[in-house]
């Protein structure tokens, strides 16, 4: 398990086309990708299981705890991106609720765009 950061502080100011915003790049895929939203309510959990393909979980709202093969949980919050390799055991849970985007694809390399936390 690796934890990256995609918060505003790691983004780039975009001014092209008379724009004014910050973009934090996350991922580029070479093969098809599945992208979905996950909504965990208070005391919600994504149970302990193996990743079928490399998986990137982007916390966009709220906070929770993640773990890989180890039994120790690590606190995560909005702006954190958790990466699990194919076959890696993992779990996500929250006491207060969280919203996340999940990206699954055979060729995910989040270190290309995001710094480790």
Describe this structure in words.
- With 117 residues, the protein is mainly beta.
- It has one domain: Sandwich (Jelly Rolls).
- The protein contains no helices and 10 strands.
- The strands form 2 sheets. Strands 1, 4, 5, 6, 7, 8, 9 and 10 form an 8-stranded antiparallel β-sheet that branches.
- This is Cupin.
- InterPro entries: RmlC-like_jellyroll (IPR014710), RmlC_Cupin_sf (IPR011051).
Question: What topology emerges from the helices and strands here?
Answer:
Elements: E1 2-5, E2 12-14, E3 21-23, E4 33-40, E5 45-50, E6 55-67, E7 74-77, E8 80-84, E9 89-93, E10 98-105
Antiparallel strand pairs: 1-8, 2-3, 4-10, 5-9, 6-7, 6-8, 6-9, 6-10
Q: What's this entry about, in short?
A:
The protein has about 120 residues and is mainly beta. The protein has a single domain (about 1-110), classed as Jelly Rolls (Sandwich), CATH 2.60.120.10. The protein is built from no helices and ten strands.
Radius of gyration: 14 Å
Counting DSSP H or I runs of 4 or more residues, the number of helices is 0
Strand fraction = over 45%
Which architecture name does CATH use?
A: Sandwich
Q: Which CATH first-tier class would you pick?
A: Mainly Beta
N- to C-terminal separation? 12 Å
Given the C-alpha coordinates, what overall shape results? globular
Mean pLDDT: 94
Global structural class? mainly beta
The major β-sheet equals: 8 strands, antiparallel
Query: Helix share of residues?
Result: under 10%
Strand segment count:
10
